[in-house]
Design brief:
Blueprint lengths: L4 E6 L2 H15 L4 E6 L3 H17 L4 E5 L14 H12 L6 E5 L6 H4 L3 H7 L16 H8 L14 H7 L2 H7 L1 H14 L2
Parallel strand pairs: 1-2, 1-3, 3-4
InterPro entries: DUF4276
Protein name: DUF4276 family protein
Organism: Microcystis aeruginosa Ma_SC_T_19800800_S464
Length: 194
């Protein structure tokens, strides 16, 4: 168990909930978390520095900042990960002595679910295959929706299922197949070592 109060800063509430679930699976359910969902990418970038200060004053001593690596709507290519990371790092630079991990899932965290055959079969009700390189899947969330469409032509999957899927997710397999997840898990494990 970790004695840290871990801040989760993400673009939406479902992402915060997924990260809380993963934190509890890695560090134990008694691990304390505090979250802030910015409701948009631009708000997260704009308010990150101020939010870090507030959450530090509220007792948070470790931070996980989550930002999807979105696609450029003009050409459908992934945005520049280094540029995004540099921008987020710059927003954190005025807060000294904090332990933080900037988690940038390639495209979106739903790609992580494609790493696990059991999760894919659960969403697809027995159909579908896991992907050895989930970060290469274009629009992983939309692909989960398509996979979940049943005989009634209605999708079963929505992002409201993400916490449930995070609970089922094979963390070892995901860490092997998803670099951003492995780095997150390594960061969390470093917190438990002090």
């Amino acid at each position: 168990m970790s004695s840290n109060l871990i801040a989760i800063i993400a673009e939406d509430e479902t992402d915060c909930d997924v990260f809380r679930q993963i934190i509890h699976r890695v560090l134990g359910t008694n691990t304390r978390t505090k979250s802030w969902a910015s409701k948009s990418s631009s708000t997260l970038k704009r308010k990150l520095s101020a939010k870090l200060k507030v959450m530090t004053r509220e007792g948070c001593d470790a931070f996980i900042i989550v930002h999807d690596l979105d696609r450029n709507p003009k050409n459908n290519s992934l945005n520049d990960e280094k540029q995004l990371r540099d921008h987020l790092e710059s927003s954190c630079s005025n807060i000294n002595g904090i332990r933080k991990y900037i988690c940038i899932p390639i495209e979106e965290l739903e790609a992580w679910f494609w790493s696990d055959p059991e999760v894919v079969k659960y969403v697809g009700r027995g159909k579908g295959n896991a992907h050895p390189n989930p970060h290469l899947i274009i629009k992983p969330k939309e692909k989960l929706i398509q996979l979940s469409i049943g005989e009634n032509r209605k999708p079963r999957y929505s992002t409201n299922m993400n916490v449930e899927l995070a609970e089922k997710l094979n963390l070892e397999l995901c860490a092997t197949r998803c670099p951003s997840f492995k780095e997150l898990r390594d960061f969390l494990q470093s917190l438990s070592r002090g």
